[in-house]
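User: Can you help me understand a structure? I only have the sequence.
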Amino acid sequence: MRSLNPIFAILAVLLLPLSCNMSGNEAERGNPVAIFTAVPETAACSQMIQFDASGSYHEDSSRSIINYEWDFDYNGLVFDVEGSGKITQKVYDSPGTLGSHTVALRVTDDSSGPSSAITTREIEVSFVNTIPVADPGGPYWATRYVDGSIDTVILDGSGSLDPDSPCDQLSQYAWDTDGDGLFGEADTDGTPWSVGSDLTGALPQIADAPWIVGADVPVSLRVSDCYGLWSNPGSTNIKVTAE
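Assistant: Let's start by predicting it. Here is the structure, written out as tokens:
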């Protein structure tokens, strides 16, 4: 039996791992690549933004992208699926949307062990913040009874409004019910009917007030939006009558 030529034996050994590596490379495949556009990238309150992931592709021509998922406020850690499809739309129209939003696209391919890729883009939502309008309701009436008691007065500031709704909303109601020009928590001396501050909230109450019959008590309200912009005061009064 003829022995193997030593030169051929060496070549066989050298070529074996090369052959294995080639097989491994054939098993490897490319990855999906996520790309998208946003129009417009700077949007006004309630303006429609269109996101288009048509530019996404796969590095392996034999593979396809089969899933497009969107997170419109991506935090970089958890991907919350808020939209799907190659082309989608989004309107930022809730309070607190002013500013930058990170939009993320995740694409997934059709392989048996699916691969995904994520890309992000910053979107700006802007509007000119309009001063809110305070409506203190009223005028109100309180009756002083012969036994000395007096009606509880429920103030109603729910008619106040924020012109930038729905992208903004009212967040604070501060009342001046004792005529000292200090509103809500800024009135640290309190009032005869509240301790530590004047009244706050949309529907506060005044109970056991010391007003006399015939009094015409001035009441003012200021409101603030969620960005801290305060309104001018809105004024009304409380009229005290006898039983």
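Now, to help you interpret it: Confidence is low (pLDDT under 50) at residues 6-27. The radius of gyration is 34 Å. Let me know which part you'd like to focus on.
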